[in-house]
Ubiquitin carboxyl-terminal hydrolase
Amino acid sequence: MTEVSEILMSVLSTIRVPRPGDRVHKDECAFSFASPESEGGLYVCMNSFLGFGSKYVERHYAKTGQRAYLHITRTRKTQKEDENNSGSGDPPKKKPTRLAIGIEGGFDVEQEQYEEEVKVVLFPDQQEVTSEDLASMPDVVRERVSLSMAGLQAADSVSHTLQVQQWDGEVRQESKHAAELKQLDNGVKIPPSGWKCEVCDLQENLWMNLTDGKIFCGRRYFDGTGGNNHALLYYQQSGYPLAVKLGTITPDGADVYSYDEDDMVLDSKLPEHLSHFGIDMMTMEKTERTMTELEIAVNQRVGEWEVIQESGSTLRPLWGPGLTGMKNLGNSCYLNSVMQVLFTIPDFQTKYVSNIDKIFNAAPSDPTQDFKTQVAKLGYGLLSGEYSKSAPDPGDDPSTSTEPRGDQVGIAPRMFKALVGRGHPEFSTNRQQDAQEFLLHFINMVERNCRSGMNPSEAFRFLVEEKIVCQQSQKAKYTQRVDYIVQLPVPMDQATNMEELQEAERRREEAESSGAPPSAAPRAQIPFAVCLAALSEPETLTDFWSSAVQAKTTATKITRFASFPDHLVIQIKKFTFGLDWVPKKLDVSIDVPDTLDLSALRAMGQQPGEELLPEVAPPPLMTPDVEVKGILGFHGNEEDDSLYSPLLSPVLDDSTVSQLCEMGFPLEACRKAVYYTGNTGIDAAMNWVMGHMEDPDFSAPLVYPGSSSAPGTTPTESLPEEHLATIISMGFSRDQATRALRATNNVLERAVDWIFSHLDDLESMDVSEGGRSEGGSETSREPPPGPCVRDGPGKYELFAFISHMGTSTMCGHYVCHIKKDQQWVIFNDQKVCASEKPPKDLGYLYFYRRVVE
């Protein structure tokens, strides 16, 4: 022990005591999903507070020389408990009573109970030091090491902090109608029980309007349960905003809903409002579940197998490499589904998993914040099979378990989710998100981090050709843009069961007028060929400004594939807005094929004898009181702008720009819309905006023809070297960094945003520091290369699809089906099973791979 004491003394300066704000990773390895519960436990560096599994701790020691680690091992206690008793002697688990995470009454994030053992381990000889051993050591050693051990044990781990981000779904605001609510003196008195809907006679889920005391049933839930929407319909007729849910009234309060504010609210005058109708809050007892309790029940059910489309089948759990489940971290099923699919694609496997040793060896001092490291860690976790093991039931004794359960131990991608969501207003939260938006967000992050070397997102990248033909001159304009996803429209008016749908709508209207509960609506059957035809059919453009005739006219736009990617992603545009701008999901069944041939949609380019529209911008609005100045070229200056013909500075219609901005569009996009439509009014500008929203430079600053930089910049303006160095350090060239800074008036944050929004154009930015290519004149330059895309035959086969259940992308649940070795497999968070009846007609995102003949 004397030798160990001497070693501790020699490394004492490297042993730190955690301070507030230190990131302590004591629940998860930086390079794997090892934890204190894993075989071998977890080693926490007592200097950096990074955690390492037994497989990676020696790598960290060899790289850093850090010798002292806190070794944490946890053993799960055997728990046999029912609702009222805990066999382990611990208090019984409480049912959640609050729609919240991480606060009293909310969902528990870690219900298992563990016995924990900690000790200090000294490398390379792995000498162990327990708390008892410290008692016989010198005071300075005992004090420092004991404080560090106690501090690490007491500190909240980063993963736990991320998991327990306090979220409270019950926080309600005082209604703006509560204080001055007008109540009718109509003599209505409500009995303490025996209520029913005044329209359909339902006796549950009843809401009393606080203005006139009328009682109606509540809303219908997405699964068909609930009421018949009569309380909502009455508000739409009467305008009376507040209603209280009968059966939830107690001396402590009740559920109050504001239809005008579209939310659950507080009513500080609720006792007074209820007494108006003869209801004494102090004597009422709760007989109905509150809205919070109903939402909690839905949240508890969402992970159950019955929710999945294949609930009628007995599904066989699967285990092994590539069959690893992922824990739901709280509405993270969208992330789980997308990442499961991506790591079945060879490009992502090769980039991150095949090169995992190289990536880990090159990782920075804090690998938890390195994108490549965390993606490689996730990919290896999914593909290796190391974590594809049956999860023990917390209520069972592991020694008595007879057969594997459907749930897996799986992996919890906390570090990954925190990293890819950092700084994002949506993906950094615990709210449900759109899987398609997350896929594009992740692809964008891959693009940023693959400036050199192999880029797996190229597997999805393709070119779209848009051909616009002026109907008056018959001249054409060709443009190309990069895309990653094909968005397929859903023509509801071409459903094959239209008669059945119309009859169901007629019955629904009859039931609504008579107050009877409506029957279940049939699902619209839409042929896939119809959706594909809607994508490819010519689009008519009205108010198109033709440079050939120098006036507005009609044009047609035809969209085709200029290249076919190795892997094609198709999004079914199920989510739309109703006439009242309320988001809704189209309930459709589409016969999506297993094989797909898009060869007929390949773009043909300019045809022989076809004339192109002149490249001339619409005429800008000029006013006589505006000073006329030349717009300088890259080599121009105030005294000499002879390199370019002087252009008049256009004046944009500020009122139109303001109207567009008020609609939520970026300022620069609004300025471009007004400029390129020649100040011809809000309608033309709005059409331009809607037609260019997908452009990569949609929000980039407006650059007038003949100008090489954004307004307010001059070509001779000096560029801050520190800004250039920052952008170059991200993997961009000096030329590209120069262009970005010039386009954004030397504002670093805007330049970074600008350069990432122009990723597809970077290869064509042949601009040197002086502004022109070093080769000299325009005529001597080689044509710039386009964005890097792969191309091949347009024949594909379906290998995966992601499905969504719920009323909108912001709620509900995602699962994915993936074809592995000719067997469809369903991935539902931690459940991985052989699929018996994959619901291919109900998917949201479909993934195809090229068929190589």
